[in-house]
Amino acid sequence: MSASIYEIPVKKITGEDATLAEHKGKVVLVVNVASKCGLTSQYEGLEKLYETFAPKGLVVAGFPANDFKQQEPGSDAEIQTFCTANFGVKFPMYSKIVVTGPEKNELYKQLIAAQPTATTVNEPTWREKLKGYGIEGNPEPELLWNFEKFLVSKNGAIVARFAPDTAPDAPALIAAIEAELAK
Predict the structure, then answer these.
(1) Residue 115 CA: distances (Å) to CA of 81, 105, 119, 123, 159
(2) What is the mean pLDDT of residues 24-31?
(3) Could you list the active site residues?
């Protein structure tokens, strides 16, 4: 059995060693983020989601990744400044990691293994939209793009995965978060 997601070493965006154990007992929405993506405006919605549900036990955890068309080229300090200045991000941000391919971070290996398929709430799907831009997305179970969302229960179980274009205020995502918070 692989390690609990609470035991996987990560780094905060400010450079300190960390694990997700600091969020044990809370519901965590893990999101791979990027500053130069067509979906970057989701930062605003993610922050609103965090502010709305943090008092009830939700944590949004942002993990910058440069895996998709180099849409996160900045340093951790540049990313942090961008997120704070443009979107007022206060939810926890972590150091840039790799979320696809052979160098994939252990956290994402476990997230993907537990939830190999993303729930799609929009038509056309994000995969179809990418094809329209001439981009062939990764096949499942790999991440398709920036801003995929993994929902982690209070006890560390990975319970849901949502497609990149699932807005932070999408009814399906909100319902899943509220269901986990109610447990």
Answers:
(1) 32, 16, 10, 21, 7
(2) 98
(3) 37
